[in-house]
Amino acid sequence: MSTTTVATDRPAGNRRSVRAGLPLTRASGLGLGIAMLWFSLLVLIPLAAVVVTSAGGGWSNFWQTVTNEQTAAAIRLTVGFAFLVTLVNVVMGTLIAWVLVRDNFFGKRALEVLIDIPFALPTIIAGLVLLSLYGPESPFGVNVANTRASVFLAFLFVTLPFVVRTVQPVLAELDRDAEEAAASLGASRLTIFRRIILPSLTPAIAAGAALSFARAVGEYGSLVLLSGNLPMRTEVTSVRILSSIENDNLDSAAAVATVLLAISLVVIVTLDVLQRRMVRRG
Questions:
Q1: Which of 7, 211, 225, 266: disulfide with 162, CB 3.0–4.6 Å?
Q2: What share of the chain in percent tops pLDDT 90?
Q3: Is 250 exposed, middle or buried (CB count within 10 Å of its CB: 0-12, 13-18, 19+)?
Q4: What pTM was computed for the model?
Q5: Helix ranges restricted to H, 103-197
């Protein structure tokens, strides 16, 4: 009887220890301090400086800047297309990752390399490539230069790898036994995907979607040549920020940047909440 009691009590004690956490050793504390200092210097302090600078002209100047007709149009265009591109990447990125992991075909290795090109290619060169393929002298007869379609195309190009590369390793590590067991019990392929595979992939998809959205919102280089930066039509927020800086108006540039920062934060938190709920339901 006592042996059983000890065996059942010990895990509870272990769980309490895990919750409480172990005290940091000197080496761990030093590592944590260096990591936080590095993170603060690279991320927290610059972001805080942008927010503080945006408030330099007062609330009225901040509100006037972000509600300016040209700035508001740039924000709507950037955020709207970034959201649409993220939706496309969630579907197509997951599909590409599935093909790369579950299928064997001629040219698979070449496709693996091509997917990473947007990572390695400087964005201004990406803009030149897109202009050559889809500009006035397009070999395909497709000219989207100086149109909103050029913004969407550029966003698609630079954000292509994110969902693929976050989903692919997770999909490759999934245990196929559960899928085979479900299939042997009569579950359809759709049911297997929805109830077994998708819950495991959801965190990776959400992470890739967040990266894709953030990358699109801040894109500049690939748009310069193709979109034409036409006010009220193809001008994105990064161009508006640059214009404000060139006109020595740092307060306005920081105000627009703060709005984008807030929107990106909301999107990231929303994606995290949604993926947690989907995992629990799955």
A1: 211
A2: 47
A3: middle
A4: 0.82
A5: 108-115, 117-120, 123-134, 148-173, 176-184, 189-192
